[in-house]
TrEMBL record:
Gene3D superfamilies: 3.30.420.40. This is FGGY-family carbohydrate kinase. The keyword Transmembrane applies. It comes from Pseudonocardia kongjuensis. Residues 285-429 form the Carbohydrate kinase FGGY C-terminal domain. Keywords: Carbohydrate metabolism, Kinase, Membrane, Transferase, Transmembrane, Transmembrane helix, Xylose metabolism. It holds the Pfam family FGGY_N. InterPro entries: ATPase_NBD, Carb_kinase_FGGY, FGGY_C, FGGY_Carb_Kinase, FGGY_N.
Length: 479
């Protein structure tokens, strides 16, 4: 039986785990890394923190004997985060993360340069260069950090940088290169119209489940192991969540919520990202800006740990307070960096418990907003969703989401579906995995299903209407 190592470089931590080829987890380790916010709207990370976390987690697995008899390595990582580096791969500036909004004004000017036909292809059909687009980050650095830009020879996503550290070769993939891939599967010429020379800074593209190279011994991994090209964390979580056929859907409950639906080819909707078809999977997806991050923020404001706030929320009566979780703008389906969060409807009877429950419901309303657009894109209703990620550890939050979405949620046994999906990519890359559907059937398990409570239907439908109305009414205040 083969052993596959998955690596998931997320927004808050790097996770590594070894799995058998039937999905059994042998060992796992996690290391957290910080996000730095030196100015309002900025969110940066230090790639050195990523590398320390990875090497520390690998050392833990090695000490447990889990690295023996490895077959292959797979990677996934956060996307819409970019770093610039020199020829040696040395980072020249902190990585600008997907949560960073400093480039909004720059991005608006770039969109205006695009012809209508090219604009329609940006970011999987979104039609705009937003603040997290690599071209916006490149243009901002070129203007505001000219000393850094003069030395830059590579513009890399976190996954591509980690791959280069492990194998000596940076390779990107079409699924996570959002807004950087033309209809021919290569980097489009219009990128150089936005930032001169941009295409030359980007790594070559290859299938996520192809072999990029072999480990060199860097990071504490045994040398000579095949390493898959890998992909974005959300796409990897789709695989680790068992998404394998049209109609399958998932809520990846991480730092942000990512809702995705597999469909027949074609379709699309405003505000939704449509990915290139890959190995028979045609996926529409929408990431929000804050999921678990909203609960973490609420802990800092209301006091207490995540576990304590979840316990408090469970004591609250039926929710009357609305929470809009747009703490740093919103991504799908609005793509508005100016939106901000609110608690609405508080009264003298409102306490910490009611505010905590409102946060859980508000994140679920944001997911419902995305799901409606996804069903429009796919042209069919979603009967149920898989759910994974750290947010899925809470039975209460899973039930709240099932009630708000009015869909059954099937929680995966492996909550860290991204790291499992990375291991699955490794299996596909070296030929031990078979087909995507066959691999999902063998490696992905469900541990519990949460069904909607019909007693909550009228209240939550009304709340969702007020949520959307409040969002529309308050948006102009912040522009």
């Amino acid at each position: 039986m083969s052993r596959l190592l998955g690596i998931d470089l997320g927004t808050t931590s790097v996770k590594v785990a070894v799995f058998t080829d039937d999905g059994e987890r042998i060992a796992a380790a996690t290391r957290r890394h910080p996000t730095h916010r030196p100015r309002p709207g900025w969110a940066e990370q230090d790639p050195a923190d990523w590398w320390r976390g990875l090497t520390g987690a690998v050392a833990e697995l090695d000490a447990a004997g889990a690295l023996r008899d490895l077959t292959a390595v797979g990677l996934c990582a956060q996307v819409n985060t970019q770093l610039v580096a020199d020829d040696a791969g040395t980072p020249l500036h902190p990585a600008i993360t997907w949560q960073d909004g400093r480039c909004a004004e720059t991005a608006a000017g770039l969109t205006e340069r695009l012809a209508a036909a090219d604009r329609a292809r940006v970011r999987g059909g979104l039609g705009t260069v937003d603040a997290s687009h690599p071209a916006a980050r490149a243009a901002w650095l070129r203007t505001h950090r000219p000393d850094v830009w003069r030395r830059t020879t590579r513009l890399l996503a976190p996954k591509d940088w980690i791959l280069a550290q492990l194998t000596g070769r940076a390779v990107a993939d079409p699924l996570s290169s959002i807004g950087l891939v033309g209809p021919d599967g290569d980097h489009p010429a219009w990128l150089d119209l936005l930032v001169p020379g941009l295409r030359g800074l980007l790594p070559a593209l290859a299938d996520p489940a192809s072999v990029a190279g072999e480990t060199t011994g860097a990071g504490g991994l045994p040398p000579g192991l095949p390493v898959a090209v890998g992909t974005m964390d959300a796409w990897s979580a789709l695989l680790g969540g068992g998404i394998a056929a049209p109609g399958d859907a998932i809520d990846v409950a991480g730092t942000s919520e990512v809702v995705a639906v597999a469909a027949t080819p074609g379709g699309g909707a405003p505000g939704i990202v449509t990915f290139p078809t890959w190995r028979g999977l045609h996926v529409h997806a929408g990431p929000t800006q804050a999921g678990g991050d909203a609960l973490t923020w609420a802990c800092s404001v209301l006091g207490g740990t995540v576990e304590e706030l979840l316990g408090l929320a469970g004591t609250a009566g039926p929710g009357t307070v609305l929470f809009l979780p747009q703490l740093a703008g919103e991504r799908a389906p609005l793509w508005d960096p100016h939106l901000r969060a609110h608690w609405l409807g508080a009264g003298f009877g409102t306490g910490r418990a009611e505010l905590a429950l409102a946060v859980l419901e508000g994140v679920a309303h944001a997911a419902r907003h995305v799901l409606a657009a996804l069903e429009s894109a796919a042209g069919a209703p979603v009967p149920a969703l898989a759910v994974c990620g750290g947010g899925a550890n809470s039975d209460l939050w899973c039930q709240v989401k099932a009630d708000v979405l009015d869909r059954p949620l099937r929680r995966t046994a492996e909550r860290d579906a991204g790291v499992l999906g990375a291991a699955m990519l490794a299996g596909l890359a070296v030929g031990t995995g078979g087909s995507v559907a066959g691999l999902a059937a063998r490696m992905v398990r469900v541990d519990r299903e949460f069904t909607p409570d019909p007693r909550q239907r009228r209240r939550l439908d009304d709340a969702h209407g007020r949520y959307l109305e409040a969002q529309r009414a308050l948006a102009p205040i912040f522009r």
